[in-house]
Design goal:
Two copies of one chain form a homodimer. Chain A is mainly alpha-helical and about 130 residues long. Helices cover about 70% and strands about 5% of the residues of chain A. In chain A, strands 1-2 form a two-stranded antiparallel ribbon. In chain A, a hairpin with a 2-residue loop joins strand 1 and strand 2 (about 40). In chain A, helix 1 (about 5-15) packs across helix 2 and helix 3 (about 45-55) packs across helix 4 (about 60-70). Chains A and B meet through helix 3 and helix 5 of A and helix 3 and helix 5 of B. Chain A binds a DNA duplex (30 and 30 nucleotides) through helix 2.
Chain lengths: ~130, ~130
DNA sequence: ACTGACGTTTACGTTAACGTAAACTTGGAA
DNA sequence: TTCCAAGTTTACGTTAACGTAAACGTCAGT
């Protein structure tokens, strides 16, 4: 038997509320099995949740996250399906690449700025030291 | 004389509405000069707007974007100010680094998946070719 | 003088992403 | 059996980030 999770298991692990997880289900991002009324999450469900949350951290809306994540569950039976899938993967990949560029320049800007600050700091400290003599 | 921009100049360039730009001003992200009632944006204002929009693309709220961007306009007169600034820069830098990790794994996942899809595709195509004989 | 095109303020409306509360069920510990 | 913690549905509330509309000012072109 594969391990399963309750909704509060996942809520605790990912630091969100059960409400949030149910909301993702309402939006079609998750589709856990049921045991009676209770939701039962498999390892695959858990992975999907992790993907959703990562998507959110990267600035995607739930709808955008869904579009991407659903590609990982797309049918691959026919040649046509696979070709269409590869198209869409390329498209999403380009979006991620754009974000990477944004992120790299943000980080580079900050690093250069911090470096100038450090230089200015040692300079100021040298001045104070000189004035103290 | 330095070049300036009207609100619709910037709106066009960055593909947002004037309303959005005014909203950023309401939220304290921009503070353009005025000529009478009219807002006059300098190159520095334009840069700040670009930073705001990049922040949004990276998943920051306006408040978070503001916190980061304001660091670039922080006073650096005293040693204490510079040290505090460097602290905060480090903190924000760590957040960006987290996003980078997220982004890298998202891209790597997708690349590996796409690769498996391509393999499966050539495999399927080989099967079809064999069946056609 | 008149008319757009562009700007302004004010204020209510909208959408996404949940929060919160109420009322109910249900499986296990005491 | 009773009770409680954890689950469920339903539905209204909230916040951020703007959209949209009204009512008005201003200034270059005819």
């Amino acid at each position: 038997m594969e391990r399963t999770y309750s909704i509060s298991d996942l809520a605790r692990e990912f630091d969100v509320t059960p409400r949030t997880i149910r909301h993702y289900e309402d939006e079609g991002l998750l589709a856990p099995a049921r045991s009676g009324q209770q939701r039962i999450y498999t390892a695959r469900d858990r992975t999907r949740l992790a993907l959703v949350l990562r998507g959110k951290r990267l600035g995607f809306s739930l709808a955008e996250a869904r579009e991407i994540i659903d590609l990982y569950a797309a049918p691959q039976g026919e040649v046509g399906q696979l070709e269409a899938l590869l198209e869409k993967l390329d498209e999403k990949r380009a979006i991620l690449e754009d974000k990477r560029r944004d992120l790299e320049s943000a980080i580079n800007n900050m690093d250069r700025y911090a470096e100038r600050c450090r230089e200015r700091l040692t300079e100021l400290q040298a001045m104070e030291k000189a004035a103290a003599e």
